[in-house]
Amino acid sequence: MPVESVFPRLEALLPHVQKPIQYVGGELNSTVKDWDACDVRWALMYPDAYEVGLPNQGVMILYEVLNEREGVLAERTYSVWPDLEALMREHQVPQFTVDAHRPVKAFDVFGLSFSTELGYTNMLTALDLAGIPLEAKDRTIDDPIVLAGGHAAFNPEPIADFIDCAVIGDGEQAVLDITAIIRAWKAEGRPGGRDEVLLRLAKTGGVYVPRFYDVEYLPDGRIARVVANQGAPWRVSKHTVMDLDEWPYPKQPLVPLAETVHERMSVEIFRGCTRGCRFCQAGMITRPVRERSITGIGEMVERGLKATGFEEVGLLSLSSADHTEIGDIAKGLADRYTEDKIGLSLPSTRVDAFNIDLANELTRNGRRSGLTFAPEGGSERIRKVINKMVSEEDLIRTVATAYGNGWRQVKLYFMCGLPTETDEDVLQIGEMAKNVIQKGREVTGQNDIRCTVSIGGFVPKPHTPFQWAPQLSAEATDARLAKLRDSIRGDRKYGKNIGFRYHDGKPGIVEGLLSRGDRRIGAVIRAVYEDGGRFDGWREHFSYDRWMTAAEKGLAGTGVDVDWYTTRERTYEEVLPWDHLDSGLDKDWLWEDWQDALEEVEVDDCRWTPCFECGVCPQMDTKIQIGPTGKKLLPLTVVNS
Ligand code: SF4
């Protein structure tokens, strides 16, 4: 049975909303497949507005991987702005996909990718608009399977009530395996209903189905144990795609119709990071390092540019300058696209891996904007605690070379509230900025040197050595940052040349609550949603008071509260809500690394030293995959010219 497009009903509403273009679909490289020619259908959502969701690589990759397969279709859906939400409710238009404007409820799977926990309330809005019951236990055979993925899914417990299942790790192969299971179950006439298909998924050991896990609590509120029921495996493993060259996606990147956060094409040059920064969840959960080959990158850039017409290429990864062949990649691409004036960018740059030659290559064909470095911690001591192995001397040396090469702007990223941090550690941020400016003045002989410091609050994350750490309260974070601000502003010699950007501590506490929360947090999320909570990742929509009121209501009678989840330090013995989700990292290794942090002991990058047994490689039957391949990115020769 064909599914009716809701577009005729939607179209009438569009003149009354902001940026209607974001809802119309038809982007270059988007795909609409015949509904009836497919037997497994996915609606993929990045639970944020179009401008943030469309460039998301995870969704774009899965969209293409699924649509390439015969008999499978995937369409995209994004969060609608509150103005359209109100009209959709009034006119009973359901949550729709932008590709063919089909109602999300008609699909087999509703897959959501969560990069951050602050998208949880947007998921509830979408479920409700779609006409899908908010809680998994109330769904019937006619509802899609609601599946969560993305980095935040490494602890899906706070949303356990709302999702049917979660997948941790790389999605490319996983979505195909899940498709095969659903296809077989449908072909057999859907025996046993939802429970049966979910059990089949759970039994693979790679799909987490919360309903097959019972959580028992101790009288003091901690978790006593998590027990699998109905024969589900006791732990669920993450998925790891080993050879990135085998997955050269997106091949045909989507070109947005409306303005988005990134107006460029992105190519992921490697996945994973083994530098071991202790605060970095992405680095820990995406191990081991897997590089895409220089020739594979060259082909993706070439094909992507042809398919899109973009004029800038972002070379993505957690620390792009770390690719073993980054110099050749940058030079090769800059050479190849000199004529076309294609700009290149590395969104993430480490102080120590950075070299100015590389920056010069990257900006050869394009704009030279400011340089960005992330020392993360102000003092030498705190950088040892977080294992950010970079000294102030390294930074100053790099910056001096940059100024010598004509750069004039430096941006520095830091965090506030790191474990063991004192006011003194944070005040050092100001000192570092002053030293950077002083060096710039020396090297250039000019006074108009600027340095911007940007500071975010630290949130301890699951599957990292800091998962046991107490989070700094919002008040203490604000007080510490106020001291830093006063010391910078009060400095006559440098104060005017230092830009100071920071976030207050409140959103970090909510993120902390959601990051390390357990199933009891579901009631809080629901209460926030019901009170009108939407777009919590957006400063102008976020309401701390709403979250605190909801937490009081949602956690009433449980004996635990927001502080218990955030500012409390955990012990080695405590069962953590995500212990049954296996990121491959050995819990004892993480604990030892936490102890090393407290003793300010640094740990090397295992790419260049012998393995220090974090557990990932043997457990996942994977290994670090790095070059150099010794290959070069040759200029393209024009065929038949
Ligand atoms: S198992 Fe060893 S080589 Fe593999 S990521 Fe961990 S420390 Fe590195």
UniProtKB/TrEMBL annotation:
InterPro entries linked to this entry: CHP03960_rSAM (IPR023862), Elp3/MiaA/NifB-like_rSAM (IPR006638), Radical_SAM_N2 (IPR045784), rSAM (IPR007197), rSAM_horseshoe (IPR023404), rSAM_sf (IPR058240)
Chain ranges of the Radical SAM core domain: 259-497
Domain of life: Bacteria
PROSITE patterns, A to Z: RADICAL_SAM
Alphabetical list of Pfam families matching this protein: Radical_SAM, Radical_SAM_N2
SUPFAM superfamilies, A to Z: Radical SAM enzymes
CDD domains referenced in this protein's UniProt entry, alphabetically: Radical_SAM
Gene Ontology MF, one: iron-sulfur cluster binding
Protein name in the entry: Radical SAM family uncharacterized protein
Native source organism of the sequence: Kitasatospora atroaurantiaca
